[in-house]
Amino acid sequence: MTQLDERSKYLRRLVVSALDGGRRGHLGSSLSMVEVLRVLFDDVMQYRPSEPDWEGRDRFILSKGHGCLTLYALLADKGYFPTEELQSFCHRDSRLGGHPERGKVPGVEATTGALGHGFPLAVGVATALRIKGSSSRVFVMVGDGEMNEGSNWEAAMSAGKHRLSNLVLLIDYNKLQSYGPTSVVMDLEPLADKLTSFGMAVREVDGHDVGALRTVLGALPADPARPTAVICHTVKGRGVPFAEGNPEWHHKSNLSDQELAMIREHLV
Question: What is the β-pairing status of strands 24-25 and 252-253?
């Protein structure tokens, strides 16, 4: 398994800072996508933290909104808001809620949480940008369990039909949804073949290998005449051994000091 470098551990420590502040959150669902978002924000996307609504920016939509701890960590790291604010996660007077909200949190492009909405929304945004003649791109992250939603497949058909090469679908394929393996709940395979048949150019990558992610995400679109789907093979809870692949850590409430200390031990 790919070893986590210091930057990946640091971003996970920011995630845990928010988890500590709220004493709750979707830890497993957040940690599986740290490297994908890291590469997007560090190496791929165009944006301006001092000007969140800059017209020329690339858009990132987190459809699996319950994984917002990682999005908040990246936004704080990039200067959209102070890292100290992460400690206010899920407090009554905080703008950092359990799902991200556009208009409240700078850098958040869409209010998400009800699964199956982000990809269709991204198709609409990508279509609008193309009509405007914009060179901006739209990246949307969905969960593998979320791909059970029929709205995603309607969105894939629409994206394929309109040849939205400015659209990139990222699938956090950690093989585990809220209450069991995706292969048991609703098997997605053959996932790559299905997406290809819907008119998308498909790439697969180790979602924790920063170098491999840079190679794949740095060479988009995969086909200049089609939307791209990147299947990111990940591990739920990556970086915290007792949470890895453990559905009990999909979401936790009322976390104790001892549990938080155990998590931190693995991120030093």
Answer: antiparallel
Which pTM value belongs to this model?
A: 0.97
**H-type alpha helices, the chain:** 6-22, 27-31, 34-39, 68-78, 118-132, 150-161, 182-185, 191-197, 210-217, 257-265
3-state secondary structure of 220: coil
Residues 170, 167: Cα–Cα separation, whole Å: 10
Helix (H, G, I), strand (E, B), or coil: what is residue 82? Answer: coil
Decide which of 3.40.250.10, 3.40.50.300, 3.40.50.970, 3.30.70.3040 is the CATH code for 6-265: 3.40.50.970
Q: Profile the chain (268 residues) by mean pLDDT over runs of 10 residues.
A: 92 96 94 98 98 98 97 98 97 95 97 95 98 98 97 98 98 93 96 98 98 98 98 97 91 91 93
Q: Is 86 helix (H, G, I), strand (E, B) or coil?
A: helix
Contact 77, 38 (CB under 8 A): no
Q: Return the structure tokens found at 133.
A: 């003649």
